[in-house]
């Protein structure tokens, strides 16, 4: 799930640069959650059945066999985003975004 969260962060922080297809679920997710605070947006994502379905479908694609959902893995995804000429690290295991400085 952290890969999906990293993707959500990356897309959300670049909405002004992305021409997102209005028929896709990500567009609906961002449109319906844009007025929520971070905690409520996280709750909304957690309860989003369609996002969970899309995540599961995509987790099974690729060149490497995906582990089962029950398997405890050590893999972890984070996102790096460029905002206001600064590089930020977004990691769900950290309390807040980390600014790595001007770029």
Features:
about 100 residues, globular, about 40% helix
Question: Uncertain segments of ≥5 residues (pLDDT<50)?
Answer: none
Number of strands: 3
| Major sheet size, sense and barrel closure | 3 strands, antiparallel
The first-to-last residue Cα distance is 29 Å
As a percent range, the share of helical residues equals: 25-40%
Structural class of the helices, strands and pairings?
Answer: alpha+beta
Overall pLDDT confidence: 82
User: Nearest-angstrom radius of gyration?
Assistant: 15 Å
Name the helix and strand elements from N-terminus to C-terminus, one letter apiece: HHHHEEE
Helical run tally: 4
Morphology: globular
| Percentage of residues in DSSP E strands | 5-15%
Main β-sheet, spatial strand arrangement: 1-2-3
Report on this structure.
It is globular, with a radius of gyration of 15 Å. The chain is an alpha+beta fold and 103 residues long. Helix content is 40%, strand content 15%. The chain contains four helices and three strands, in the order ααααβββ.
């Amino acid at each position: 799930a952290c890969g999906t969260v990293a993707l959500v962060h990356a897309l959300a922080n670049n909405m002004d640069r992305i021409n997102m297809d209005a028929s896709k679920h990500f567009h609906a997710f961002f449109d319906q959650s844009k007025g929520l605070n971070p905690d409520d947006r996280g709750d909304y994502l957690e309860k989003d059945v369609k996002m969970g379905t899309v995540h599961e479908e995509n987790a099974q694609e690729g060149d490497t066999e995906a582990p089962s959902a029950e398997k405890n893995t050590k893999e972890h995804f984070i996102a790096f985003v460029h905002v206001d000429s600064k590089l930020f690290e977004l990691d769900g295991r950290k309390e807040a975004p980390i600014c790595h400085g001007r770029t």
